[in-house]
Design brief:
The structure is a single chain. This protein has two domains: 2-226, no CATH class; 232-357, CBS-domain. It has helices at 20-32, 34-60, 86-113, 118-138, 145-154, 160-188, 193-226, 232-235, 249-259, 277-282, 290-293, 309-319, 338-357; strands at 7-11, 14-18, 65-71, 74-79, 241-242, 264-268, 271-275, 298-299, 302-304, 323-328, 331-337. It is globular. Helix content is 61%, strand content 15%. The model has no long low-confidence stretch (mean pLDDT 82). The chain has 358 residues and is of the alpha/beta class. The relative contact order is 0.07.
């Protein structure tokens, strides 16, 4: 699905990506109402400002920002949380809701002085949406801002895993109350069945989205806590072929058959790219060398041989890729494949549990 999530530009070097589900919802709203499509565009700008405050705060704390992804339920600033101290995570998390509430204050003031009619209604709607966005994000929901702020506070006296576990428990309790409150709300308020059905469906979808995110955070914390000894080199695979630019397409296929692998890598200076099966389907069979179709290849992230394996897992998650190149200096040493890494971790954790029993 990563190929369906386009980048729409960058702000101060930070790439902005629209998640495919965001685009789908945007098209649905445009089909239903041009006016509400305009409202959604304004909200998109407000969410982008919210995320930019996270990114700016991250940079001021010496943490690189990889990109900003916009989802139907909000956005996410993709940063390396492994290198974030609890104090920095608290600051990064809390500025987003503050920015949304400040935007709400601006729209609230504008609503007072706006002319009656559609202009005032639009400004009031943006005021309400930003209040909702600020309050929604300040709740102790993991992986949202409030949940991250709560975890960073809990880390003052606890380990990262214990803080995450408690934050997830609180987050799940809030999710249960949220869904229960939704049913109480639709039973008590007047309205059409279609409206109530929409509210229930939306809130349950939102609750499941947050529950899944909290579960993923707990799994990541467990892996981080238990595989700190593993390095990228411990889980890398040699099941790949590095090819050169002069190779023809038929030669490439013969190489794949000979080595029994579909992982084909090549170099463009310091960049490592992968030739995927999808790319190969687009390649002409005869009369072309690999160099003629190399622009179709996809750059893959790189990590050093001695880096912690969890760092590589985090890169896979944030870069939305199942492959990371393992480097020894500037030399390609191997490749990390998502399924292979999962198998290595499962075997390692099984071994640790067996050692504890003994």
């Amino acid at each position: 699905m990563a190929e369906l999530s386009p980048y729409i530009g960058s702000i101060d070097g930070i790439r902005i990506q629209l998640h495919w589900s965001f685009i789908l919802l945007l098209l649905l709203i445009l089909f239903l109402s041009a006016y509400y499509f305009l409202i959604w565009i304004f909200l998109f700008i407000c969410v982008l400002i919210h995320e930019m405050t996270h990114s700016i705060t991250s940079r001021r704390n010496g943490i690189a920002v990889k990109k900003i992804i916009l989802y139907p339920f909000g956005g996410g600033s993709v940063i390396d949380f492994e290198k974030v101290s609890p104090e920095a995570e608290f600051r990064i998390s809390i500025v987003g809701p503050i920015a949304s509430l400040l935007l709400a204050a601006v729209f609230g003031i504008l609503a007072i002085y706006s002319p009656a009619g559609i202009v005032r209604y639009t400004v009031q709607t943006l005021f309400e949406l930003n209040v909702f966005l600020g309050v929604f994000n300040i709740l102790p929901w993991l992986p949202l801002d409030g949940g991250r702020a709560l975890r960073s506070y809990l880390q003052e006296k606890r380990s990262y895993f214990d803080a995450t576990r408690i934050a997830v428990q609180i987050s799940n309790a809030v999710t249960a109350l949220f869904i229960l409150g939704t049913f109480v709300y639709v039973l008590l308020i007047p309205g059409t069945f279609l409206y109530k059905e929409f509210v229930v469906l939306w809130d349950i979808t939102l609750g499941l989205f947050i529950y899944g995110g909290a579960k993923s955070e707990l799994q990541n914390a467990y892996v981080k806590d238990n595989v700190s000894e593993l390095r990228a080199g411990d889980a890398m695979s040699k099941n790949y072929v590095e090819v050169n630019r002069s190779m023809t397409i038929p030669q490439l296929y013969r190489t794949m058959l000979k080595h029994r692998t579909n992982v084909i890598l090549y170099r463009e200076g310091s960049i490592v790219k992968a030739v995927s099966d999808l790319t190969l389907d687009k390649m002409p069979w005869k009369g072309k060398a690999l160099k003629d179709v190399m622009p179709l290849g996809k750059e893959i992230p790189q990590i050093q041989y001695n880096a912690q394996l969890f760092s590589a897992i985090d890169r896979m998650r944030t870069e939305e890729t199942g492959m990371v190149a393992v480097m020894k200096g500037r030399q390609l040493a191997g490749v990390l494949l998502a399924q292979h890494v999962e198998s290595v971790i499962a075997l390692y954790l099984s071994h640790k549990r067996a050692m504890r029993k003994d």
